[in-house]
Design a protein that fits this description.
Blueprint lengths: L1 H8 L3 H9 L3 H8 L5 H13 L3 E6 L7 H20 L8 E5 L10 H17 L4 E3 L7 H14 L4 E5 L5 H8 L5 E5 L14 H17 L3 E5 L3 H9 L8 E5 L4 H10 L3 E7 L4 H9 L4 H7 L6
Parallel strand pairs: 1-2, 1-8, 2-3, 3-4, 4-5, 5-6, 6-7, 7-8
Helix pairs in contact: 1-12, 5-6, 6-7, 8-9
This protein binds dihydroflavine-adenine dinucleotide.
Amino acid sequence: MLRQVILAASRSKRMRSVVEHAPVSKQVVHRFVPGATVDDAVRASKALLAGNRLVTLDHLGEDTTDKTMAQATVDAYLALLSRLGDAGLTSDGKAEVSVKLSAVGQTIDEALALDNARTICEAATSHGTTVTLDMEDHTTTDGTLGTLRELRRDFPATGAVVQSYLRRTEADCKDLAYEGSRVRLCKGAYKEPASVAFQDKRDVDASYVRCLEVLMGGAGYPMVATHDPAMITAAKRLGRTRGTYEFQMLYGIRPTEQQKLADEGETMRVYVPYGDEYYGYFMRRLAERPANVTFFLRSLASRK
Ligand code: FDA
């Protein structure tokens, strides 16, 4: 119930203004978003890489409504990749980027988003790294997987996210479990109707484990994106050779566990969002756990 309310609020302009102007917001947000600038993104990446955690960077922004905004997002990614490359952080995909197609024009025109994503993939490839397409609400799933297919013709290392709360995802995983495919499996963070998505956490988790089994048993490179100890244990139990898959978590969430997995010899990548447009991202994090609102406030005082 709380999750539905917060996710509904994530679309509200009025609520956005309230949250952005609340005195506590900036501090809370900064635990989960290291900052607004490329410098902030590079600094956070260096710190994580120094601890043997890999990085995927997301330039925050979604719901791009015109071509100029879409181009600004592309330019931001090009500047980011250039800075990461110059700092020697992109080799072997140590730091890669995550892209929301809505930020590069998907809601205006799929072809525009494809062209823009292609430009980012070209830059990533030239710096020796990769792009992973984030997944947004279910109305974009077919379009995003279609764009992935197109991008992979020229940039075969391009990856994408799938969401276990969608009823379709186990079948998508079967389609995507081929050699060279990079698939980031998460539970899903949007408000979705029962017609397309499991509503009960137990069903979402059971679907996650089924999808894990498909991906870990397949020929691709699974990216196990979760903070859930039960899912992490399930992934480890599948006994795949280390280095042929990776764990992923969000910046600021369970950092001690992130480091523990990296120290154990698991490949661990942290999703680092940066930029001004943090509202939608922040609200989805708030909605994730019933305890999250309190958790976020308590998190000001301590790091777990
Ligand atoms: P869930 O939220 O069910 O939590 C399960 C358990 O994990 C909790 O009971 C607790 O034990 C532990 N836990 C979770 N959060 C914690 C916290 N803050 N502190 C301590 N313990 C905590 N979504 C999407 O729709 N599209 C996308 O493209 C992406 N991309 C993405 C990339 C990466 C790298 C990650 C990690 C996640 C995403 N997501 C996403 C978000 C994802 O869909 C999901 O909303 C969150 O990861 C939360 O789900 P969990 O799997 O962590 O479990």
